[in-house]
Design goal:
By secondary structure, the chain is an alpha+beta fold. The chain has twelve helices and nine strands. Helix 6 runs antiparallel to helix 8. The structure holds adenosine-5'-diphosphate and magnesium ion (MG). The site of magnesium ion has 4 residues, from loops.
């Protein structure tokens, strides 16, 4: 059974930003609100509240609530929101099973002036994420998990892995796996992956050279950037390993909170920890089976890192899955 770090009184888990900030530098939250307002006449989604400033809103149409993600197309890569929406749509229509694991896509369009992209989705609990769950339920780092919490942690992790397996089987890498991109109902009756901003098609074994996503969940090959070609799938496995650490220990395994996010020092501390495998959580995880799974997922060499199918067939994962099935059947 896992336990948290001794003596910590505050939660050490904190959120990371990915896509939104790039746009923010040039635009204000009012610009996003105005864009939504301007689209209202034609598309009739009325603003209810801001879920995630500046770009995700709760909206209402014909007495039904939805979430809408508003992306500016002026800055950065013009086609990105369209590509993102097409991957989201594709994942959602691929089969019944996918509906359980991915946020439901409703529709998307581009504004008349072609400056804004809107993607309407089902609204899951006004934006409650797996990170919120960790903060709510395990209020401080250092807490031992109860058997019930331990099972909840597994259920979230297993849902994430199943969603990622679904994507990988269709040759799509998510590339921004983190707890903030997992939406869930507070009673655990729904757990779904969202945010396909960095997702990309890639054939198995295809090499790529780029560094994207959230640094705290970034794999060694992402930090090495152009120096290390690697398959796109391997960064998802690393990020899932980081998520498992956070779920179990309520602490980010790599990097430090001391530095401001986005600064040179912040990135360097994470990089140092990642490259040297200095995992701040592993010592607090006493279960040998989980430790051996994490070792496979957080292998510094992407060539030797396990695949998502290895994770789903791992001894601990299979054991926990059977345990959960027996509990709920
Ligand atoms: N379909 C949705 N329903 C409810 N909340 C959502 C939905 N999609 C996103 N959110 C909320 O908005 C946040 C940011 O959305 P996300 O798509 O991850 O944007 P970003 O690209 O800025 O990370 C999520 O962490 C979640 O809290
Ligand atoms: Mg996100």
């Amino acid at each position: 059974m896992a336990s948290g770090e001794d003596g910590g009184s505050e939660s050490s888990v904190y959120s990371t930003n990915s896509s939104g900030l790039i746009e923010n530098k040039h635009l204000t939250p009012e610009d996003y609100r105005q864009a939504l307002y301007d689209s209202q006449k034609k598309h009739q989604y009325k603003y209810v509240k801001t879920i995630h400033c500046p770009l995700v809103f709760k909206v209402c149409k014909k007495k039904k609530y939805y979430a809408i993600k508003v992306r500016n197309m002026t800055y950065g890569y013009f086609g990105q929101p369209l590509y993102t929406a097409s991957i989201h749509k594709m994942l959602f229509v691929l089969g019944e099973a996918s509906k359980e694991f991915f946020v439901k896509y409703v529709e998307d369009w581009i504004s008349k002036d072609r400056k804004w992209h809107f993607c309407v989705m089902e609204n899951i609990e006004d934006g409650y994420t797996a990170l919120d769950y960790v903060k709510d339920k395990f209020n401080c780092a250092g807490m031992s998990l109860s058997p019930r919490q331990y099972i909840d942690v597994f259920v979230i992790f297993h849902h994430m892995c199943t969603a990622v397996a679904f994507m990988h089987n269709f040759n799509v890498a998510h590339k921004d796996i983190k707890l903030e991109n997992v939406l869930m109902k507070k009673d655990m009756s729904m757990i779904k992956l969202c945010d396909f901003e960095y997702s990309a098609f890639c054939r198995n074994g295809e090499l790529y050279i780029e560094s994207q996503g959230s640094p705290l969940y970034g794999s060694p090959e992402m930090f090495l950037n152009a120096k290390a070609p690697h398959t796109k799938f391997t960064c998802d496995i690393w990020a899932l390993g980081v998520c498992l650490c956070v779920l179990l220990v309520q602490k980010m395994p790599f990097g430090s909170q001391k530095f401001e996010e986005g600064t040179y020092e912040f990135l360097n501390t994470i990089k140092d920890d990642v490259m040297s495998g200095n995992n701040k959580c592993i010592l607090h995880i006493s279960n040998q089976h989980i430790r051996s799974l994490l070792k496979k997922m957080l292998n510094l060499d992407w060539r030797n890192r396990c695949t998502i199918n290895d994770v789903l067939n791992d001894k601990w994962v299979v054991y926990m899955k059977n345990l959960c099935l027996n509990q709920y059947s």
